[in-house]
Amino acid sequence: MLPRSIRRDGNLTDIHFSDSLETGLPVGLLNRRPDVRAAEMALVSANAQVGISQANMYPALNLTAGTGFETLKASNWFNIPGSLFGIAGATLIQPVLQGRQLKTQLEISRQQREQAVIRFRQAVLTAATEVTDALVRINKLKEQEGFAQQRADTLSAAVNNAQLLFKNDMANYLEVITAQQTALDAQLSLAFLQNQELNARVELYRSLGGGWK
After folding, report:
1. Is residue 3 included in any domain, yes or no?
2. What does the pLDDT look like over 62-90, one tens digit per residue?
3. Would you say residue 213 lies in a domain?
4. In terms of Cα–Cα distance, which of 22, 33, 12 is closest to 124?
5. pTM (2 decimals)?
6. What CATH number is associated with residue 99?
7. Which residues pair with 61 in a beta bridge?
8. Fewer CB atoms < 10 Å away: N or C end of the chain?
9. Residue 22 falls within a domain, yes or no?
10. What DSSP string runs through 94-132?
């Protein structure tokens, strides 16, 4: 998207979010995160490498028109007729002669796969922890915001009452100013909590790798 102007004339009270997050989020959404995805692909690669190393443990024959399909049968791998060697010639490969090296490579591949499994699990646990923390923070802030909203509404009504009393000579102007100051503090506290909730939702968006829909 090309750069464009951003409207900044809105109010925090005009921003609303769906409450569907209260029912939870599927853990499968974590695969959107780049770190989790990278760990998953590393595990897939490590697992494939184990397969390659294991395959190298077996003798292999390069198929030619002279060898035929029969050379692929397991029963013939270690019972190859003498005449076949003359036909196959240089196409016969015997990795068994490198058995020790191949076994070592297989073990290394398996260890690397285990490390990839651990890294993948750690990435998922880290992602799940960050998402859970963000969800808990959002819920706690919503509760605090509800109490703060009630307090702000009550103090706003107190300001109206103080102004009415002042107009009827039943209160001095200092009481009106005091009520206004208290109401303003309550509104600032409410705005702070609303801002914190928005930041928590941004953190949830980031921890999920780009959203939850």
Report:
1. no
2. 545 554 545 444 444 444 444 344 444 43
3. no
4. 33
5. 0.62
6. 1.20.1600.10
7. 92
8. N
9. no
10. -GGGGHHHHHHHHHHHHHHHHHHHHHHHHHHHHHHHHHH
Question: Distance between CA 183 and CA 167 in Å, rounded?
Answer: 19
Do residues 89 and 67 lie in contact, with contact meaning Cβ atoms separated by under 8 Å? no
With beta carbons less than 8 A apart as the criterion, state whether 162 and 175 touch.
yes
Q: How many angstroms separate the CA atoms of 211 and 20, rounded?
A: 13
In the block, tokens 């600032």 appear at 188
82-141: pLDDT as tens digits: 434 444 443 444 444 456 777 777 788 888 888 888 888 888 888 888 888 888 898 899
Amino acid at 146: G
- Domain range for 139 is 28-59+94-207
Q: Is residue 126 in a domain?
A: yes
In this structure, is the dihedral angle defined by the CA atoms of residues 204, 134, 23 and 145, taken in order, positive or negative?
A: negative
What CA–CA distances, in Å, run from 184 to 28, 45, 150, 151, 174?
A: 44, 59, 14, 11, 15
Going by C-alpha positions, the residue among 25, 3, 15, 14 that lies closest to residue 205 is: 25
C-alpha–C-alpha distance, residues 19 and 85, integer Å? 74
